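Lecture notes, unit on protein representations.

Consider one protein chain, 208 amino acids long.
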Amino acid sequence: MKTLLKSVVAAAVLAAPSLALAAAWEIDPAHSGAQFSVKHMMVSNVKGEFGKLAGTFNIDEKDITKSTVDVTIDATTINTRNEQRDNHLRSPDFFDVKNHPNITFKSTKVEKGADGKLKVTGNLTLHGVTKPVVLDVEGPTPEVKSPFGDTRIGASATTTLNRKDFGLNWNKAIETGGVVVGDEVRVSIDLEGVKKAPAAAPAAPVKK
């Protein structure tokens, strides 16, 4: 029995450093955002954002490939600073938010690129369609202690999508050639995470 206990203690000691290097973070929606940019009338770029997102990410500093990201964006909060356009974007012509109120991203692979930055591959579900996409990530930043006592970290991600891959097909032709809305959409996501408290260890059984 003593030998068994020593083995358990030794295993816990050896595992402790790796556990300390893995951290879970809750996305702070007040300091995070998702933005996009798309060509309009072939001459300018219209930019917009989603006002509400939530989720978690886990960072394993010992083995970054074991890190994960899970983000949900509220599609109903789309904002391009034009009420008529925003209502059209919420309609079945585009996001159809009545039937598809959320946009989700769940990572399936995390790796370091040749430039040292992270590449996060995952499944993006938009307008009821799920497709694999790759995010180019800057960060994560070093941890900082806020004046309010919590610990925070940040990261930024970018990617480019073809909206038609997700069934957002609406368009109108222009008399001089071209279309009203471009197919290519540039996306950027800024995340600020608050470190989650580690799960409490199970209580030791009471000896009788």
